Backbone:
């Protein structure tokens, strides 16, 4: 078992995830098996008036801190608990598509489906989850299309996002659109989709192990 490569959604180095050995799996919602690219996309940068968006349950220790500092504090920070169930899903997706940055704060575990949802809707993921190893990090430069904020820096979240220049944001938006294909499951695998990318991660880590034995 010591040489086994584990594929884990909870890719947390504090609870045993081994960089160079284990593979980080993305958490995804498959909304349409027949058409996996249905509803993917979002508004262009000029039509995203919301600076940052988060809506969700308050499980874990990070999300209550996020709401304590940012719920109803700034008009361009849409930070709230769960949306009402009536048409809540449509509102949630529309808010993602209208936001520059989507907050992906850890819950009970380090990973969240919001990371992939944000990518699908061209909303820059803002990952607040210390010790989280993002999926496909072996080949994707996450810092080119996502923002990583330390949990201790939540009180300064808005200033961190406002410090990102318009030019930098536009470039990140372009890159997040480019990486979408790598996070899509297809009924029949398609070149460079998530199935192939995960196989590549497993192969990469196996080669890494061989080189260090």
Residues:
């Amino acid at each position: 078992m010591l040489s086994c490569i584990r594929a884990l959604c909870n890719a947390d180095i504090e609870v045993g995830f081994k960089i160079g050995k284990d593979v980080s799996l993305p958490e995804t919602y498959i909304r349409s098996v027949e058409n996996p690219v249905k509803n993917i996309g979002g508004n262009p940068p000029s039509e995203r008036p919301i600076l940052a968006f988060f809506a969700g349950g308050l499980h874990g220790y990070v999300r209550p801190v996020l709401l304590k500092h940012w719920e109803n504090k700034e008009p361009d920070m849409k930070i709230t608990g769960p949306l009402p169930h009536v048409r809540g899903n449509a509102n949630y997706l529309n808010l993602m598509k209208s936001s520059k940055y989507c907050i992906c704060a850890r819950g009970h575990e380090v990973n969240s489906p919001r990371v992939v949802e944000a990518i699908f809707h061209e909303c820059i993921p803002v990952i607040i989850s210390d010790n989280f190893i993002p999926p496909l990090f072996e080949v994707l430069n996450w810092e080119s299309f996502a923002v990583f904020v330390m949990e201790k820096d939540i009180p300064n979240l808005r200033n961190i996002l406002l410090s990102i220049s318009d030019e930098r944001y536009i470039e990140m938006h372009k890159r997040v659109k480019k990486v979408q294909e790598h996070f899509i499951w297809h009924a029949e695998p398609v070149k460079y989709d998530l199935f192939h990318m995960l196989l590549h991660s497993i192969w990469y880590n196996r080669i890494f192990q061989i080189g260090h034995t």
Remarks:
- The first helix runs from residue 62 to 70.
